């Protein structure tokens, strides 16, 4: 891979997925894209780049973007967010939404499904307190490949051994050969949709809870600011947002504030973000629009 191939790929990935590669990640690009190049009958990365530059390789470009995403996930990852769901978010929302009896939860960057299905199992475990409630869990991701796996709800022995308590495995999964499939009632609680967080998502409507974990970490500061502002526009005023263990709004945006006692949990700050930003517009644009009224 030549330095100009690497620059081309860095720019492409930043624009398409938000991935912010530093200048020294050639090894990562090679380890992910050489096998892809071979799979599509090309000699290596330089030929892959040539093909993309020719402008007639949209499918290959999408494969390159997918190959460069990190899909690492597991059931009940980090545990505490699910304790907060059970002990903090749900009690507050069950009270606040008594009249409406419905809740919308969005799992942005849901990968292969372990996170939205962990949420679904948590809710199911709450039992009779949610009887008669309409519960929507929306799982979205950039990658069609991970969404397909998530829809199927089929996991390997290795995957169910990572984070999933044995009693929940027994209760909510059925063994299919050497794999485990989530039961239909849990699968039916999760709707799937392809969505790039760099693009507008106002059409999704508003949510009571947003899990947006372990994805913003790959983005640069301006992209994070823009996404936090958009998230603030689709969350209810008394809703909750959950970030990954290595992520925070602090020092980046004031549209959310950290929960005073629950690490990783954020609430809308009541700061009305500027009018909707289209596409990957920079926060400066939002400020300019806000200033113009
Ligand atoms: C490391 S996984 C995190 C999965 C899950 N949220 C968790 O914490 O276990 C990151 C996911 O973000 C997705 N992703 C990366 N860039 C994205 C983008 N621009 N829009 C939406 N999803 C994206 C990847 O496809 C991947 O499935």
Please, could you describe this protein's structure?
The protein is an alpha/beta fold and 293 residues long. It has twelve helices and ten strands. It has helices at residues 3-17, 26-39, 45-53, 58-67, 80-96, 114-125, 144-152, 157-160, 166-172, 184-187, 221-233, 283-291; strands spanning 102-108, 134-141, 154-156, 173-176, 179-182, 190-194, 207-212, 235-243, 256-258, 265-268. The protein has a seven-stranded mixed beta sheet, sandwiched between helices. A hairpin with a 2-residue loop joins strand 4 (173-176) and strand 5. The longest helix is centred in the first third of the chain and has 17 residues, at 80-96. It is globular and about 60 Å long. It starts with a helix and ends with a helix. The chain binds S-adenosylmethionine.
